[in-house]
Queue: 2 jobs
Job 1
Amino acid sequence: MQHRKLHDDGGQTTWVIVLETGDEVMQCMQRFAEEQGIFAAQFSAIGAFRRVVLNYFDWDAKQYIRIPVDQQVEVASLTGDIAQAPSGKPALHIHLVVGRRDGSAMAGHLGEGHVRPTLEIVLTESPTLLRKAYDPESGLALIRPSTA
């Protein structure tokens, strides 16, 4: 993983983060957020994976269903945010759409993604803290602007 600060103005910082073959996205992004102390950001990315696991939230069961995709795929769209989890650590929330060789697409939350050959991420950090709070209806920690 390589990264570089592109711009910093009044606490709003833009970063470029480039992952390479073999990097796992969730681990790299979590480490980056923790090392840089990022608790409010949004990001997007393009690239490709050699293998990815999508997660689909089953509302009735209140749990994620894992959908492994064990093939090379293009990242057609990857968007996400970072907020502070109830634990105090940065919390990633990433959605993506991947395209398969036949042109079909699959989408969901990113569970894990193994890069090949690259994933190019542009992240914009906000100077304001963004917090998540436990939501009893869903059983998830969700962003609550009122807790910022």
Job 2
Amino acid sequence: MTSSSPLSKTSPSTLLGVGFMMLGVFLFSVNDAMGKWLVGTYTVGQILLLRSIAALIVVAPFVHREGWGRVLRPARPGLQILRAAGSTLEVGFFYWALSYLPLANVMTFYLAGPIYVTALSALILKERVGWVRWTAVLCGFAGVLVALGPDLASAGWPAMIAVAGSFCYALLMISTRILAKSGEATLIAWQTTAALIAGAVLAPIGWVPPSGFDLGFLGLLGIVSMVAHACVNRSLLIAPASVVVPYQYTLIVWAILFGVVLFGETPRISLLLGAAVITASGVFIFLREQRLSLATTASGAAATSGAPDAVQIVDRPNP
């Protein structure tokens, strides 16, 4: 009877966490579809500029709560600048690729970002990655090649823009991991400000005067993105990451659905196969890292408490 009590207490929060994750993923997908529609009329610079203005308005109260001095004078400012630049390139490449490729194509390439993180963690952060995860990484790369399909030969450079953007996204996640103690408001403020500056520089080139409706739509782009981030963060606070993070891969489902319904796009079979391989590899890597993290924690706790029985459940740390 006592064993069912913790489950009954944690199940509602876990379900709520899954709900927040699904809502956040849906809002990100809506944001992407809005971006796809806007790049048909407006330049990437305009979108970056107006999106960032709206986002900064939303994030300003959180910056004020964290303290303007701490945000404006963070630790490791050089790395903050590099991270903000990488974030701006990632967003810019995303919208640039959307102006040439179907929504599902671009999203598929970006879903490979966490796979690149595993590979780059071994190279940049010197983290140990065992052969099991390296195999999953190689499978993920193979999925990217399958997803590229005929794009590699017939429309290679737009596809390469999306792939480059996904690498920038991976570098963004790596730098975020290093700067995790900086505070969320600091990280968001710096990357949003960098996008604003880039947009201000690029927007005059090919500027298209927006209508009142489109101006609101461009501003809504930044607000929806901020709310989506908040939903995902809330999900991770109230539910186990191992449960909710795999739901992020439903992004590809929404991308395909919005592409078909809103833009009349028909996904290729090779794209669907590649997306399936990338998703499977990404989920496997994430769950594997979670398992190894728990094993390391359990091993450390057992060594501290001197309880030898706990060690028996720990697998080899980096197989």
